[in-house]
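Objective 1b: paired records.
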Amino acid sequence: MKRLVFFAFVFFSIQVKAQVKADGYIGMMPSVYYLDQQDLKMWENVLHNRLNLSYDFSPSVLGVLQFRNRYISGETVNKISGYPGLIEKDPGFLDMSFNLASGTSSVMNITVDRLWLDFYVGKLQIRAGRQRINWGQAMVWNPNDIFNAYSYFDFDYPERPGIDGVRLQLYTGVASQVEGVVKINRVRQKTWAARYRFNAGSYDWQFLGGRLNDQEWVAGMGWSGQIGDAAFYGENTLLFPNGDNATYIASAGMNYTFKNSLLLQIEGLYSSNLSDEGENFIQFVGSRASLFSDQSSVRELSFSKYSVFASAQYPFTPLFTGSFSVMAFPPSTAFYLGPTLEYSLKPNLYLSTFFNLFLAQQDNRTKIVALQGALRLKWFF
C-alpha cells in the first residue's frame, strides 16, 4: 500500500506539473531537549521541506496534494528507542508515511498529510480523502475538535495533522451551514459526527453530536464573538463511554489587541477525566520523549484537570516580533513557559527562536522537568 500511494502522488505531480498551483517552504531547525525523569539530554537537527499542490480539474472539482519531507539527524534518533518507527507511524486509514532512509543517527521521512478531492454541487461541498477537520473555536485547547486534536507544543507543524474520511458541507444561508464528517483511523475505528453552525445575537454558534472511535457518544457546543472590543470564545464537549461515567471538557478564552498592536490572550480548560496531582504531572512530562510532537487526543488536551493559559505578543518593529506564553496547572506547582522571537531577514525568510519549558517545585526549589529549545531558519516560496 505504501508504494502504491507513493507512486500515485508522484504520477499525479508529473501529469499536472505544467498547470498545478504550488507553494511551500524549506526550513532548518537545530534543537536541544532535556527530560528530567530520564536524565536525558539530546540534540537534533531537522531539515524540513513542505510542498503544497492544487489543481482545478473543472469549475466544480478541485484536487489537493500536500506533503512534508524531513531529514532528522542527531541524538534523538539513537537515544529514543524505536525513533524511526515513531516518525514513520501513520494514524490514518491509509499509510502515507514513508522512511526513505534511516541509520544509527539519522532518518529521512516523507509524509502525505493532505490528499483530497473537492466536489461542488450547488450549495453542497463534498471533500473526500486526507484532510484537516477543524471544529475548534478556542486558540489553545479545542474540546470540539474531536477528529484531529493537536499539540500546542509542536511549533514546527503549523498545518496540523489530517484525517482520512469524507466531509459534506451544505450552506443553508449567508452565515449558516450543516456539516457531516466520517473518519476511519489506522485500526479501522470510525468517528462520525454532524455540526450545525449559525449566527445569532452577533455571535457564531455551533452544536455537534456523533460517535468517537466506535466507543463513545459525543455532544458539544461552541461559540465565538466579542465583548466590547475583546474577542470571546469557548467550547464544551460531553463524552459518553459505553457503560462508564460521562466526561466533561470545556475551554473558554478572550483576547484583546491594543492600539500599539500588543495582543493579550487568556484561556482556561477543564477536563473532568484528568488528575490534578502535581507529582503525576512531574513524572508524566519529565519522562515523555514524544511530548513536543505527539498528536493529542480530545481526552488529553492537557496534563491536569485544570489548566490556565496567558500570553502576550508584540511587534517591536515591523520586522521583529516577540511573544511570551505561560501555562499553570492548579492546584499543582507545575507550570509552563514558552517565549518566542521572530525576525524577518528578507521577504519570505524568517529567523525564529522557540522554547518549551516545563517547571515544577520539589523540595522547596523550582526544577526543570522538561525542556525544548530551537533555532529555525525558514524560507517560504
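Objective 1b, second protein:
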Amino acid sequence: MLKTENDIIRLVKEDKWMMDILFSAQSLNLPDWWVCAGFVRSKIWDTLHGFTERTPIPDIDVIYFDERNVAEAEEKKLEERLRAIHPNVPWSVKNEARMHLKNEIPPYTSSVDAMSKFPETATALGLKLDENNSVVLAAPCGIQDVLNFEVKPTPFFAETKERAAVYEGRIMKKNWMSIWNKIKVSHLH
C-alpha cells in the first residue's frame, strides 16, 4: 500500500526500469537534477489502480538548474547523450534556470521551486539519486493529492485566470480519467 514518501521510494527502488532511468540521468552530472512529473505520477497511479503493465508516458522529463549555461542548445545535447544510453526513451531535458523566460514568470530559485509551479499538484513530483545512490523524492506540494487520485492546480496555477486556463487545457488534453478511472479532477471555473 502507498501511504508515505518512503512507500513511494520503495516502489521506485523495486522498479528496475525506473532505476535505470535515474542512473542514466545521474550520469549527466547536472546541478540540481530531477526526473519528474509523469514519470513519478504515472507509476503511483498505475500501482494504485492495480495495473500490471506500465502506462506509456509521452516523455521522460529531466530537469536541472544551471544559471551558468541557459542555452537551449545545451538541453538538446543532453537529450542526445541520454538517447545514446536509452534510444527508445522519449527524453525531454529542461534547464529550469531558463524556463521562466519561456513561461513569462519570475525566475525560479531551484528545480524544486520550478516543480512547485507545475500545473497540477499530482504532477509536482521529482526523483533523483543522492551521492550514495539512494532514491530521493521531492514533493513540494505534498503527496496526498497523487495518493488520493486528486488532480488539482498548484497554488501557482490557481493564482491567475491565464494560468487557470492553461491548467484546464491540460486536463482536457491529457484526459487522464480515460486511463486511470479513479482520479477526480478539480476544475477552476
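The chain has nine helices and seven strands. The CA atoms of residues 65 and 97 lie 5 Å apart.
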